[in-house]
Design a protein that fits this description.
The complex is a heterodimer of chains A (182) and B (431). With 182 residues, chain A is α+β, with helices and mostly antiparallel strands. Chain A is 35% helix and 10% strand. In chain A, a hairpin with a 5-residue loop joins strand 1 and strand 2. Chain A is globular. Classes of the chains: A alpha+beta (182), B mainly beta (431). Chains A and B meet through helix 1, strand 1, strand 2, strand 3 and helix 2 of A and strand 5, strand 6, helix 4, helix 5 and strand 14 of B.
């Protein structure tokens, strides 16, 4: 395999096509049409936020600021107190999800705090995703975490503190089709 | 041999009147099928000034309709549509089900492929769409759609099934709906595109990489993490569906095709592949698409869709017309490979007969099964049970519920059960 790879690379230097490895182990001759990206271009495209905080933008916010934003931009669909309305509930008791009437809200079910920031910044509110600033997103994330009793009212959420938040259900998941690294 | 059926041929091979599947190959048996109550308009429904004799209908005597740039189904089939449901506020979040009960064979017409959108269908200009591959690669790359169309391609017939398909099966009472509006978040198409391994090879994947985060260009920028090994193994960049470019609601101009894995991983409107050393733990792989067990722990990264089968005819909403010989028809599929066997039962699972599997039988694809059935007009309980080539057997509902509880929501694949009463009415039951 490494030889094939080597051939592909060498050819790529002299010809605009290469020999790629096909899934069945055979070779495919393919053009090489990808345009190399600069570091700045990659940054402009990259929207991934990892649980360890990589990808979080600079900025910060607190629950009190978030409460006002939530009432204005989110309560209509998720309920005045996050109890759910046309869209799902976001606030519940941080009890472990059990067999009887399980609670799958943020405090009870979500394993990582970074996921809240990530999902809000990429998807919410549905009519204008991407319209919230980083500060506003940190503030709403802080509000949801505080309302779920995961952080305290005046904890400042930013790219350093958010990944450190210990979610109650952090270890509540079993990996099925992929082996979990140790 | 055709037409020469003996009494021995018509001897049931299992309870309730199930006949030998080989009868279907002899071609000597005329089978009735259950009829949809009102699935198509008939001449009797349309007002005619004078009665039309089928021996001499008017369309024999006048030039027919004009040529069309893109054909559409007959107006008499206008009820065969996706069943749109689950819409909340906003309207872009919801599903539409494939009407499985109205379709035959194994290919779902593109316009009837099920939908699950989280924030609507984007209206993408392909000239402005890009796929970027970056992260743990030697060379981050950007591709135009026109460029991707020049790469070597492959075609595969593959089902795509939403991880949440059939979730009404977890309800304590059996839901009464046509089979498509219960199990129709699954469809099967011929997908054509570029093997992803070719482009990953071009970018040069770092040996530290083990995951890829795939992101779509819909309003929600939907993203999920997938193990790199699956993507280099058999995933492809889908550009064509059933011979034509993808429909907007199926990911135009580009979607990820991940054979046998849950629908959400087949990211539509694909724009970005981030090669990484860990999953991003996105909302759609943590808060959703995980399955809570009775223990309080939840199953995560349950990618593979396990074997499933169901009887599409007869099925709820259709009707049987008296004691006769019927053809039981259904679909089976498995995310782990080919379907090896489908058995049907007419006595609620006490006895089983093997169904005929219609060619082609392909891995991670719908398989059409058929079984002849001499219904005596008495109450019967129909079931189908799939076994795939790995030996996995579709479980009974009580077994699945015992193992998983009823709060997992996703990945319901238990045996489906229809009760037929003396009047030929069909209902969904747990039995």
């Amino acid at each position: 395999m490494s030889t094939l790879r080597h051939i592909a690379v060498v050819i790529a230097l002299v010809a605009p096509f290469g020999v790629a490895r096909a899934a069945d182990g055979g070779n495919v001759v393919a053009p090489r049409l990808g345009k190399p990206m600069t570091a700045a271009e990659v940054t402009a495209w990259n929207r991934t936020i990892f649980p360890d905080g990589r990808g979080l933008p600079p900025g910060h916010g607190t629950a009190e600021e978030g409460r006002i934003l939530y009432a204005e931009k989110c309560a209509r669909c998720h309920g005045a107190h996050g109890e759910g309305a046309t869209a799902e509930d976001l606030i519940g008791a941080p009890t472990p999800p059990t067999r009887e009437d399980p609670n799958k809200t943020i405090g009870a079910y979500w394993p990582f705090a970074t996921t809240i920031f990530d999902f809000i910044s990429r998807s919410m509110p549905p009519a204008a995703p991407g319209s919230l600033s980083a500060d506003e997103t940190y503030a709403i994330t802080a509000y949801l975490l505080a309302a779920n009793n995961v952080i305290s009212q005046d904890d400042d959420m930013n790219d350093k503190t958010l990944p450190k938040v210990e979610m109650p259900n952090r270890n509540g998941f079993i990996w099925i089709d992929v082996k979990k690294p140790k | 041999m055709a037409g020469k059926l003996t009494d021995a041929d018509l001897k049931p091979v299992a309870g309730g009147g199930l006949l030998d599947r080989r009868l279907l190959l002899k071609g000597g048996i005329v089978l009735a099928s259950a009829q949809a109550a009102a699935s198509s308009l008939s001449a009797a429904d349309t007002k005619a000034a004078s009665p039309i004799e089928p021996s001499d209908p008017p369309w024999l005597h006048a030039t027919g309709g004009p040529f069309t740039g893109y054909g559409t189904p007959s107006k008499f089939e206008k009820y065969v549509v996706r069943n749109i449901g689950g819409n909340r506020t906003p309207a872009g979040d919801g599903v539409s089900w494939t009407p499985l009960e109205d379709l035959e064979g194994i290919v779902t017409p593109s316009g009837l492929h099920f939908e699950r959108h989280h924030d609507g269908v984007p209206d993408i200009d392909p000239a402005l769409h890009r796929l970027v591959i970056h992260g743990l690669v030697r060379k981050p790359l950007e591709f135009k759609i026109d460029d991707l169309l020049r790469y070597p391609m492959q075609s595969r017939f593959l089902f795509i099934e939403c991880g949440g398909n059939s979730n009404a099966g977890w309800h304590s009472e059996p839901i009464q709906r046509p089979v498509g509006a219960f199990h129709g978040l699954v469809s099967c198409s011929e997908w054509t595109g570029v093997p992803l391994s070719i482009l990953l090879d071009e970018a040069g994947v770092d040996s530290a990489a083990s995951w890829v985060i795939a992101e779509g260009a819909d309003a929600g920028l939907l993203n999920v993490s997938l193990p790199l090994s699956k993507l280099t193994d058999d995933a492809m960049l889908g550009l064509y569906q059933n011979g034509e470019r993808l429909r907007p609601e199926n990911g135009y101009p580009l979607r990820l095709i991940v054979p046998g894995w849950e629908g959400i991983t087949n990211v539509k409107w694909l724009r970005r592949l981030h090669v990484a050393d860990q999953p991003a733990m996105t909302r759609n792989e943590t808060a959703k698409y995980t399955e809570l067990l009775p223990s309080g722990k939840a199953r995560m990264f349950t990618f593979v869709m396990d074997a499933k089968s169901l009887i599409t005819s007869p099925s709820p909403g259709q009707k049987m017309y008296g004691a006769n010989v019927y053809e039981i028809r259904g679909l089976a599929w498995s995310g782990r490979g080919k379907i090896a066997k489908v058995e049907v039962s007419a006595d609620g699972g006490k006895t089983w007969a093997e169904a005929h599997l219609q060619d082609p039988v392909l891995a991670q694809c719908f398989t059409r099964f058929r079984a002849p059935w001499a219904w005596d007009g008495k109450p019967a309980v129909l079931k189908s049970r799939a076994t795939d080539e790995t030996g996995y057997v579709q479980p009974e509902r009580d077994v699945l519920v015992k193992e998983r509880g009823r709060e997992g929501y996703f990945h319901y694949n238990a045996i489906v059960c229809w009760a037929v009463d003396e009047d030929g009415e069909i209902t969904h039951v747990y039995a």
